[in-house]
Amino acid sequence: MINFVFVPPQSDVTRAFAAQLQNDVEGLVVHVPESEAEAMMCLAKADAAFGALSPELLRHAPNIRWLHSRQIAPPPGYFHDALVEHPLVVTNTREVYNDHIGAHILAFVLALSRDLPYYHTQQLKGRWAPKPLNSDVVFLPEATALIIGVGGIGAEAGRMLSAFGTRIIGIDARRTSMPEGFAEMHGVDAMDDFLPSADFVILTVPHTPQTENMMDHQRFRRMKASSFFINIGRGLTTRLSDLVVALEEGHLAGAALDVFDQEPLPEGHPLWSMPNVLITPHMAGFGPYLEERRYKILRDNCLAFVKGRQLANIVEKRSWF
């Protein structure tokens, strides 16, 4: 029998997952400890676990071989040194947000391309104030979008945006295959070469040691003044103070952001009052069926683990993703 532990704190969702797993996966014994002390006792005989394992909890799990993260990109500290060095395999829930966040990116692009931030501002002021004919509009069939991070989310966003005739160029550290709708795919080393020609720079990468502050003053200066920056990945991938300066100095036409280096974005932050910026409060992934999708990944991996098969969504621990 395989012992599987849901690491506390528990929630209605984890308790429901545990009960369903016990019914769905033969050969799995599921434990749902409610306290850290109880978790230590359960981990002593655990083969696998769900959640986060601190260094102390990991020391109490001598036989553990697999840890499943509820999040695609766990918070800093999840991949501590002891976990990285440990032989256990870590998996995550990537792919559950592809369509929801892809649609959010598309909404950002469409809004920016039609200058909707400006017109929404005029609406709130009760003003009928059209700009000169054809000004501040991006014609998508002649536009280029540079998508940095072509996992499931980036690939889906590119597929959807390509339907408008936009040329899609992908940048990714791992992917070499060409997703549907993409014109080109390149490695990270080529990113700076393509920033000057992009009308939309779309960042979907997770926060890792390699991506922290990857969008900074120098890279914003490489973008053309008519371009837009979109970030739906993780806030710490972008030096927000540099973005503010780039917008204030006119090096960018605008931005749309769902994630920030500090959340909530502080009251009075300059971004709140910028007329060419769209802000959503880290909700690009909102949509139906998320828990069902998370459970399916967990269940399928439990079935594979019990049968000694390869797990899906394996994380490169040193890269946190």
UniProtKB/TrEMBL annotation:
Pfam family, one: 2-Hacid_dh_C
Alphabetical keyword list: NAD, Oxidoreductase
Keyword Oxidoreductase: yes
Residues in the signal sequence: none
UniProt cross-references to InterPro entries, sorted A to Z: D-isomer_DH_NAD-bd, NAD(P)-bd_dom_sf
One Gene Ontology MF term: oxidoreductase activity
Gene3D superfamilies tied to this protein: NAD(P)-binding Rossmann-like Domain (3.40.50.720)
Residue span, D-isomer specific 2-hydroxyacid dehydrogenase NAD-binding domain: 106-284
Record flagged with keyword Oxidoreductase: yes
UniProt-recorded name of the protein: Phosphoglycerate dehydrogenase-like enzyme
Naturally occurring in which organism (per UniProt): Rhizobium esperanzae
